[in-house]
Amino acid sequence: MRLIRLERQPSRVAEDVRAALAALGRGDAFAGGIALAGARPLPDRPPVDAVVVLPRAVLVVIGVDLPDPAIRLEAPLAGQWKADGWPLVADGEVVNPATEALALADAVTERLRADVPDHLPIATIIAVGPFAERIEQPPADLAGNVRVLFPTQNSLLAAIASLTPAPWPCTPAQARALIATLAPDSALTGDALAAEGFTATEESATVKLPPVKPRPRRQRSATPAAVPPIVPPAEVTMPVPRISAAAPARPVPATRRVPWRPLAAIAVALVLVVVVILLTTTGGNDQVTAPPTTTAATPVPQAVAGIEFTKRAAGTERTCAGRAYGDLQARLQAGGCAGMERGSFEATVDGRVVAVSVAVLTFGGDEQAAGFKQLADTPGSGGIADLATETRQWPREPDLSGAAYQSAISGRAVRLVLAAYLDGRSTPDDPALLRAAGAALGVRISG
Questions:
Q1: 390 pLDDT tier (thresholds 50, 70, 90)
Q2: Taking every pair of C-alpha atoms in the chain, what is the biggest distance, in angstroms?
Q3: Which of 213, 226, 329, 424 has its CA 20 to 30 A from that of 72?
Q4: Cα dist. 14→11, 127, 157, 226 in Å?
């Protein structure tokens, strides 16, 4: 990414923004694109911290200064912000310090939309400072196009990866036209823009779109579509003697011996009754028969941040240590947890199949959860085993040793996400894997 410095920015966190953008380096090895620090899209409004023109998206970066550093910042887009449990109040009665920043971002987005290519999304980055170690956003906010972060190289990469990109990159000519509206004096050549990930020609961009087949027209019907019948699961049945009206008893002479057949029938009936009682009390109907035939419903994909996730495995457990490894296992053995939910999902990002492993651990208190997340975020501290790998649900076992990692915390619940390719080697800084892992922070495991 190439950094071009324009005007001075009004926020104190602006220097951190510039440092994080500069740390991405030249070229498209990480993100690519052109960052215009201190751009002024609106002549009558103050400059923003940066407008970042990426090959597949445009970012509007606006700084928000906190009164003090924070270890834990709760930052919902609509609602009360809290720093280490204390409410943050802006001027007057505004309970969200980012209210003005979000309004400015909306105005800038509206101004840029006419100059940005139609297929490129415009997203917003709210950069907070002077420092925030852990920032929490609700899952619903993470599904949108606004991210709140303390600006570092890794946090910017994670934010870029979690946002929905354009289906193909814009051309150098399109990028140059957009940049010229914000920085007319910038002299960027086509080669320089191509080195930052912008495609060389219009044709090279459009050929990346797969052919679209026309959908067959469906006949409209006045009656609603029929709902497919619900097929009940197979039940285990066993023959039970039919009970009919008793025949009138015949008098038996006193000297006549009772034949053995009625006694045998009574014994068989008693055995059948005992068997039925045992099966009913133990719930073992499905266990005493041949393997049942089950009809598994086709998993319904769920879309988060432009990525569709298809569930491969899901389950809950009351203990966590048995499924963890490394330092995380030792921590859980010592402190325990209130429960854990794991899910494995398949997604397709940039044409490649990605295996996504999600684990949500719930603890007895906020401090315990925060301490666990801090340890989990430490490189080399271990992790949580993937459920689909344990149950052999993958067609090919993913190499999770090189997976991209993301985490989030919400009260007492800590969510850990790993994303790795199913068809080859993975690296933790892969942009596509980071985007998949970031989107999975908002995926539902149950339901």
A1: very high
A2: 125
A3: 329
A4: 5, 8, 17, 59
Q: Rounded CA gap, 306 and 420, in Å?
A: 18
Q: Is the pLDDT of residue 95 over 90?
A: no
Tell me how far apart the alpha carbons of residues 91 and 69 are, in angstroms, rounded to a whole number: 19
The DSSP line for 210-266 is PPPPPPPPPPP-SSPPPPPPPPPPP------PPP-PPPPPPP--TTPPPPHHHHHHH
Predicted TM-score of the model (pTM): 0.53
Q: What confidence tens digit (pLDDT) does each residue in 323-348 have?
A: 999 999 999 999 999 999 999 999 99
Q: Give the bridge partners for 387, in sequence order.
A: none
In total, how many domains does the chain have? Answer: 2
Tokens found for residue 345: 């999902």
* Domain match, 346 and 199 both: no
Q: List, in order, residues 6 or more apart from 24 with CB less than 8 Å away.
A: 1, 30, 31, 153, 156, 157
Asked if residue 83 belongs to a domain, the reply is: yes
Q: Compute the Cα dihedral for 197, 198, 201, 204 and give only its sign.
A: positive
Query: Does residue 307 sit in the same domain as residue 201?
Result: no
Instruction: Give the residue from 230, 115, 263 showing the smallest Cα distance to 180.
Output: 115
Work out the burial of residue 340: count CB atoms within 10 Å of its CB; fewer than 13 is exposed, 13-18 middle, 19 or more buried.
Answer: buried
Question: Which range of residues forms the domain containing residue 426?
Answer: 302-442
1-25: per-residue pLDDT in tens? 899 999 887 688 988 999 999 888 8
- In this structure, are 9 and 145 located in the same domain? yes
DSSP 168: S
